[in-house]
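Predict structure. Chain length: 951.
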Amino acid sequence: MASLTLHNRRFASSALNNAPQSQLSSDDDLRGHYQRYAKPRLADALASLGLDVVYKKAIGDKMYYESDGKTIEVLDLLGGFGAGLLGHHHPELVEIARANLDDCLPSHAQASCRGWAALLCRKLSKMLSASVGGDYVVHLLNSGTEAVEAAVRHCELARRDQFDQALALAESSWLQFDAAIASFSVQERAALVEDWQGAMPPEVADLAIEQWANWALSENRNAAETEPCFLAFESSYHGSGSAASKLSHGKRFRSALSLTGIDVHFVDPYAPSELEAYLQKISLSLWKIRFNGDERWHLQEVKQSRASALFAEVIQGEGGIRVLPVECLSEMAKICRSHSVPWVADEIQTGLGRTGQFLATESVGVRPSMVLLSKILGGGLAKISAMAVQRRFYVEDFSMQHSSTFSEDDPSSKIAIGVLEILERDDFALIQRGAELGDRFSSGLEALKKKWPHVIADVRGKGLMLGIEFAQQSANPSALIRGFDASGSLAAIATGWLLRAERVRLAPALRHPRTLRIQPSLMIDESGIQHALSAIDRFCRFIAQGDALRLTSFLHGQQFPADESQLGSIEPFVAPVRDLSRGTPYAALYHEPRTVLPRVAFMCHFINPSSVKKWDLSLSPLTTKAAGDLLYRMEGWASYYPLYRFRVKSITGQEVDAVLIGWPIMPRTYLKALRSRPLHRRFTADIREALHDASEEGCTVAGFGGFTSILTHACKDVCNDEIRVTSGNSLTVGMAARALEKGCREQALVMGDETAVILGAAGNLGRIQAELIHEKMGQLLLLGTEGSEARLQLVADELMALHPDAPLPRVSTNVDDIHGCRVLVAASNSPEPIVGPEHLVDGPTVFLDVSVPGDAMPGLESDRPSLLYIRGGVVQLPHGDEAESVLELPGWHLPDGHAYACLAETLLLGLEGIDENFSCGEVSAESVFRILQLADKHGFVLGDYQKRASI
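Prediction complete.
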């Protein structure tokens, strides 16, 4: 079959590009496909932040997407994470790309001399030489991460090559010495021992001279087999590949590879002396011997470094746009030279003009052994990177060992040459323009910092690589804004608001979540800079006002006009004096110093949308639906943070501190997690991390509220050696039983005359509730699902063994048997409500519902007005209404001084210093009686009824 002509192929391509929009996928479809088939977790996070737009076009410093039939223009200050210095679709580079296609320039010409690649390598070598000095051999690759991976491989190859040469010379010298020993006279032997006595290690002193060579050869070979290590700066980021991830500082990058790959040691970039001490510590010794002109054998200890290289960013991009001090870097470079450790300049994000210089390393005055380039090199149109190696350091065999299918292609190389020619034109005028634009942008940001000192903590960067760090918001009057800050999400919220409200595109730094990175292109003009500054100014005003309502309008959907009365200057917030006896929302970010008092943590979450509005009063104008939408949108990125801290005093005089660790997540999301393995893993991992943080600040016990307990199977899934855990179920069960007794008295029901139904009696909680009330009831009906008869009968037998004088429990699987019973305890695991008005008599009835999500059908109480419906028992803290008991917890739906039983159990375990996992897994009657005794001892009594599910 004849192939299409080039003209026909172009025509076919053009027809596809011009196809009616109805024939293509909608934006909603594309978002769904991205979530389902590409990056599920990332897609969720983007949607949660309002960043899930589908861009259709990009020109210069603008990008475009469609919304409600309108084209939205966005100022792009993200620039491909620094790659877009020349803007989108620079016309000269577009022409080169078109010419590549028109000329059918080959992309795949492996095993040949690649013409344009050769020209690019030559040009890069000369430009690098002019920038930092030296003669460079350049390898072309596809991405920054691949350049780092190649650099790691080359550095270890070079270290191994150098070590092998030194090892070979040392072994040769010992073989010569070994051969000469036989001719040594007694006097020569004695003189040799005397000469070497101070130089030889102590363990060799007792060896015969004939054994010295074997010892030295063995020591040298052991040194040769020692695992190498690599050095990188703290807060560094070098990519997401195998080795690149290990070189990137922080648990997020290293956890998946903690037991694999290269060994990396992280260096404080502000402490050169620590680098010197570490290099001395890891130095290896090679022992060699030589015969000098004085006709005597001399022992030499030759030091070899175990470090293969130090990877260095002059400006740490993902670490928060931190410009590292030149004096420290210069000193470190000298230290590396003295230990023959290569200096690898990672200029992937900073190189080729981004910082107002060709290379950021120029300011340090160091000649790096290697330079890594990418991002800008491709001009936004090509995927290309470069690893440039000083020729004196270069290992020739590397070019035979390292290859890549798509690297060195001529089309990308030709575009990269175009990039370099644009940058060097008119004596690097564009790079100088970048420095000037950066100065103007930086001055504007500094003015905002001065205007909003309690919102912007710092402005950093150089050239067109800038960052603003938001100040800690622990004293902000908005609980939601405090939460955004404490969970590391404030900069992420800023990106969503700026995009949706101001049409400005930015992103946080990966390793420094309080920092907003600003990396515009050289195409930005004065109006673009002013637009960006004005947008950031308005965002700062919302933060300064504590106006979470308008700040989150792009998430909850309701629009509110700006408060014109607040347009004047705003005073910085001052946190009130901390009063732990009343509880305070002004918690430190993650940790507080340890104290002599015991400290406990409690995991919790929101119950419903109305609790959100009570938690943060600035959100009170929201409809219930909008409040729910706000939380649901936060699901994709929300994490835990300290909500409140407070102190409780027992009637014994003992005290305990507590921190509430909250998730801005609703029960619906946790129910979804029970059905979704990835979501379940994510929440469980988050809980484990929260437990670690709690342990770090001195908490000895962590209690679990609401679905945090259910999700972890009553804490069993997260038990660890750092901190004790409890689901709080023992006191919950005990107080629920007391609430049932109280309810029966109020309803004038004599328990000894009534039949109590235990719905879900075959389960743990149902069985325990039955055991607690068996002796007090006139009759028990153990009710379960069809097929549970044998288990129900087993429970009945166990109850009779414990209480032989009590009435024999009845067993049933027919829910209609409830009718006529006026005392009902529900403890099933049914996902749907079971009990309706048709099951209950129309008269005084007590319904204790401890099941989750609940066994009562909606509207049950209104249909049965004489019904007392109880979700459980609420605990009143010690000292009644005195100051020690006043605990204000907005959104908990509880009176001051009251707490859910699961939290109260956690406090009791802290007061008692109990060093064991308490209500972990199944609850026993023994643990219920034990915790009730402790509650009585410390003055924790049954308070009001619990009318809704606990948090």
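Summary: Residues 26-99+430-575 form a domain with the Aspartate Aminotransferase, domain 1 fold (CATH 3.90.1150.10).
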